[in-house]
């Protein structure tokens, strides 16, 4: 089963917790238990699992990435967003997650985040149940 989530981002760089929306999509599907692939079909966005309890964690993540991969650098890409491509590649475009009882089987402190590195844009997150 294939499902899609459309997310409108609001800043150039931000992490958005998409766990509630993913669980809403899963509730509409008939799959109760299994695995699901979460895939973001963009080259300047990523998906990642991390802590959703303390927002400072994702703030720290973003600052770390900004320090490691600055906006301006020794880049050749004409579009001028090489930092976004590099940050997206570092985090990755897909996750393989467990579905149990019709929702994501995450740890107590875990959430699924869409990472935006070249917004604001409209992003599509695809779910494939297998
Ligand atoms: Zn580009």
Notes on the protein architecture:
This protein has one domain: Jelly Rolls (Sandwich). The protein is an alpha+beta fold. Helices cover 26% and strands 38% of the residues. The model has no long low-confidence stretch (mean pLDDT 96). The chain contains three helices and eight strands. The strands form two sheets. Strands 1-8-3-5-6 form a five-stranded antiparallel beta sheet, covered by helices on one side. The site of zinc ion has 4 residues, from loops.
Tags for this model:
globular, Jelly Rolls, alpha+beta, 3-stranded antiparallel sheet, 5-stranded antiparallel sheet, single chain, 3 helices, binds zinc ion, 130 residues
> What compounds sit in this structure?
zinc ion
Strand order of the largest sheet: 1-8-3-5-6
What is the string of helix and strand elements?
EEHEEHHEEEE
CATH topology: Jelly Rolls
CATH superfamily: YjbQ-like
Helix fraction?
Answer: 25-40%
Structural class: alpha+beta
Portion of residues in beta strands equals 35-45%
Which CATH class applies here? Mainly Beta
Q: What Rg do the Cα atoms give?
A: 15 Å
Structure in a nutshell:
The chain has 130 residues and is of the alpha+beta class. The chain has helices at residues 19-28, 55-68, 82-91; strands at 2-8, 14-17, 34-40, 45-51, 94-100, 103-104, 110-116, 122-129.
